[in-house]
Design a protein that fits this description.
The protein is of the alpha/beta class and 226 residues long. Helices cover 25% and strands 30% of the residues. It has one domain: 4-Layer Sandwich (Metallo-beta-lactamase, Chain A), CATH 3.60.15. The N terminus is likely disordered.
Amino acid sequence: MWQGISNTYVAPHVTRIAVLVRQIKIGPAQNFEYLLIDEPTGETMVIDSGLEVDPIVAAAREESLEVKFAVATHHHLDHTATLWQLAQLLNARVVAHSSSPLTHDISVSDGEVLRIGKSRVKVLHTPGHTNDSICLFDGEHLFTGDTLLIGSCGRTGLEEGSPRRMHESLRLILELPPTTIVCPGHDYAEAKVRTLSEEMKWNPELSAASYEDFVRVHAERGRRNQ
């Protein structure tokens, strides 16, 4: 359920633990950053902090949240420019993949779990856009950074980009339940979130049957966007 202009998505209570997700749009690159809140305790994870820090900090302080982690989905500046500033302001620890060039407090690898209150958030290593790209899965929501976007996926033509690894990462994501809610790192589509089953229907890069099909579709989209 979306609550008006507050950009707050309240998770359907599929599990017995109440999790609140707040999605906040930041900056000229139309980044989405997230507060993932364990409601019973108020312990919180911030996912990315790009070119502006004030909106996230204000939201956390307004709701008196205890921010435990500031997590980078990957090292690009539009996702991490203010991550350390945010961590210092909110007394949080910076988390990134073990291969990340970012300075960070906690290194994570594929399959590791971060705990906020009673909630568990699993790390998925999803290279392809960058070597250090990760997604975060709380059992209902998948926070995808620039790996999976609504209707497309992250670019693979930048430094560290790899179409082969991106295709493998998308295959990994497809192992999650079809009801998983995809929460992307950018506001590039009409929909702000979508279920994985909807993405399978409407996202040709995710639904590509083979690596060769993926490369063709990915290249066609790149040409259209030039």
